[in-house]
User: Fold these one by one.
Assistant:
Number 1:
Amino acid sequence: MEKNKLINEIRDKTELMRRDCIEMGYAAGSQGAHFGPALSCLDIVATLYFGVMNHDPKNPEMPERDRFVLSKGHACLAYYAALIETGYIPKDMISQFKGNNSILCGHPSMNMQYGIEVSTGSLGSGLPIACGMAMAAKFKGEAHKIYCIVGDGECNEGIIWEAAFNAVKYKLDNLTVIVDINDFQLSGRTSEVMPINLDALWKAAGWEVLYIDNGNDVEEVLQVLTKAKESEYGKPHVLLAKTVKGKGISFMENNLAFHAAPINDEQYKQAITDLKTAEMIRKEE
Amino acid sequence: MSNISLETLKEWSKLGHRSSFGESIVLLARDRKDVVVVSADITPTARLVNFQKEFPDRFFNTGIAEQNMIGFTAGLAIGGLMPFAVTIAAFAPMRCAEQVRSMLGYMDLNARVVGIEAGCRFGPLGNTHFAMDDIAVMRVIPNFTVICPADPHEIYKTVFAVAEHKGPVHIRLTGAPGSPLLYPNDFDFKIGKAIEYRPGKDVAIIATGSVLWEGIRAADILEKKGISVRVIDMHTVKPIDVNMLDSVFAENKLIVTVEEHSIIGGLGSAVAEYKAGFEKAPKQIMCGLGDSFRKIGNYEFQMKDNGLVAEGIAEKVAISL
């Protein structure tokens, strides 16, 4: 597919996915949703599902599919939105987000019928699991790739670094990690809650580090993910992606109050207006 | 799975549970190409050197990082392999309990967690190295099966049985080198099906793990006093064999549970939980480790100090009857 056409298609999908996120979060009512951390990594998730990964929504368990692990499981709105827009999850399940006996739990719960590969939610859990999945693929001589999104706040967890060392030891070059650096975590700026030099740490752990200056720009995300996919480093690669928490919704952007919160009717209307405005501006361009 | 020779079992009995497991897993791996071992830097201690030598590409050492060991194990299981995560029982499950729950239990993975030196055999090393709580931790996690083999033969049977089992399993290994061989001959082993080691009318001693031997010796002491004692090997603590318990409740007058584990949350608790649903069921005595940290001392001292020797068990029974 022509590159520009693909980029435009992915952008179309991000618009639909952002609407899905708002609809799901609104449907959850007073229970609210983790809007901020989902919207920051949404463009990365969309680029993976619509521009990078080999997968087939009609055959969720296709053996040669690439695997996606959302280590920052609280950002599941973005994950579910991708699974809705690809066709793994029917659109009429949007209203079931966080509902009683629902498949669409507040953190992903493994369910291959709907394309949910791994249960996550306890921070730090996705990366070591992704490492094991990458190791199993190598052991069995399978060519598929493993993609794992980790949060910058999540990198506070010691197990992330245990897994990071392990991935280098076992030369897991079929594993690509994207760190969603939105510089926020539950109680404040990540750079204040636990100031750590992610670039230096991932390098010191022995990873091939690539950079995405704007993790909400599909074109750049696609370019760097493609570079990672086509390169053979003999070691795992990590993409440090700067993003905006709550990206795309005016009152949520860089607003910690919407890390996890309910939205009222007015906020819902405002969010939809924001998305429509952004869509119009993009079409005019 | 082929029968194992008596000579081999006698040798394993001398060497202890670590070697019994380390050699059994080599035999299983020869049969099943999907079996892999993950350990947290415990290779020689857990007698995994032979496995590593024979299957270098199926052996993973995740470093001194038990949480990562469980995460990696989960990924290997999701990837279609049959991983056995092996380390000292004091550190798995407790050091990685949340990973064991959220990864292995929650996703119902075909992964096995093996804890060596459970109980208090690491007596001189201090309480950081005792596993008094591992059955309790594992038993409370949905989907987990918990097995405590009593001797080298039962370890061998367990290793092969769990390879055919769906869902996560915890294997808890206890006992010192030189512990007796309780099953010299071939025997039927089924996960979740207790073994009536010896029939008896008055008292039922229900034991799990290598301390079964002390239960058998206690039965000998009591038989000499004219008390008929039934001895049951409850190798699977979860799911507990309720059919066997039904039979005990109907036929025996006193129940004695014996375990090298805290009396809170282990075999005794599992029996008592089931018994709570019966209006008329026999009284139960719990022999195990009390609710306190242990004194420091060698294994023999620990077992005596906690009443986990035949004489101590028999004395408790005599007082209760």
Number 2:
Amino acid sequence: MDTRVELLNEFYQTMCKDKVKIENKNYGFEFIKKLTADNATLDYVQMENNLIHKYRLLHVSENHKQRLLQGHVNQAYNVCLYFDETANNTLCFNIDNNYKRNNNELIPEIELAVDYLQQHLGEHGIEAVNVKSGRGYHVWCRFAKPIANQLLLDFMIRISAKTLASLHYSHHDYRSIKINMSPNPRFVKIISLRAFGSRHIKTGLFSHIRTNDGVLNEEDSWKYFSNYMKNKTVSEQQFLLAFNEVAKTISLVK
Amino acid sequence: MKVIAVDIDNVLNNFSDTLAKSSFTFKDSYGLSLEEFDNYLDLVKHDVFAESEFLTTKFSDFRHRIHEQCYPLAQANPDGVQFLNWLKANGWKIVICTKRNLRLTGECTKKWLQDNHIPYDYLITALNKIVFCKLWDVPYLIDDDLLNITYGERYGIQIYYPLMAKHSSVVSQTAKGFTRFEEIKQWIQE
């Protein structure tokens, strides 16, 4: 098996095994037949701007999923994964440009938000991996054990609030970006995220990793991703410590 | 392959009437003041967007949540249900083609279709249905959208639309309005 596919399997080990979304520019009824090999079923299709097509597949067999992931690392299309419905070993802040105009632009507020987000996570001893994704970033954290989705969300809401506050206090309009958080129990069945190693359909750009030293090329991004998983995965204890610390300073109104 | 695309809202159901006639109660979870709630609800009911330079706003979230409440309430058009069952029985592939964001509304849309015994082969979100039909070689589209009715002809897509007051200005030479789905049968068999 391709080592990159092995890496993705390990990094995203708690993601749904039999449900994926495929995004690319291929379309048509014949293409659907290929996607639904091995008795996979097509749930729905989304045709978006620039003729991008997204196909949500259910009942995907293990073999078929591995073939799809191979296609993903070969950049034939992108595979998007769904979080487990109860607990996960990863979380992701999905930061996007929120302006209607020039929506694909990477605006300065996004870069700043990634910095602030990292800073706030770092205050609690958590390091994230920042993956470029179209008009924004996916900021991933990985944990040694699955953690309940609600706990992950409560943590992310607080860190996001601190990030937006930091933007506001540095005289930037926090409404210029949006931060979607996954896994969110309310949307966990329906929201998927592109796996690392993708090429953004709209922009054609690889999902480069951004570090404090700059943006890495494709090969170095894969190395960094692998190193992050081996050396920066956060223990459950560390997460709980971070959660308790941040919960002391920010309470949520429910 | 005999294939046809069919819209849901205001074609297979009475979505706009449902939206206009339903009452919605204020909830704290909307994150709005009472004044904002009344103002936004009025805009949603009249299918008007609150102006904003941003994609995601309090209004866009509210609009989605009101629409989400209406989708299950909208009543299926029995005539349309019967027609789709006729299509299925006669070997047609049915593409349910909607502007709804299926990522967010897929589950309630599927449930509504199932509860109302509406058969289909594919469920697709397409903001531009003419482009979708052209790309996917779907020659027929049943839709109430004025833009599609007007431009379908130019792109070789035959449009059928349920006659509504908003269609009084339609100038298309080829799009055909109908009062009963039954009328479409003869047109697609010509």
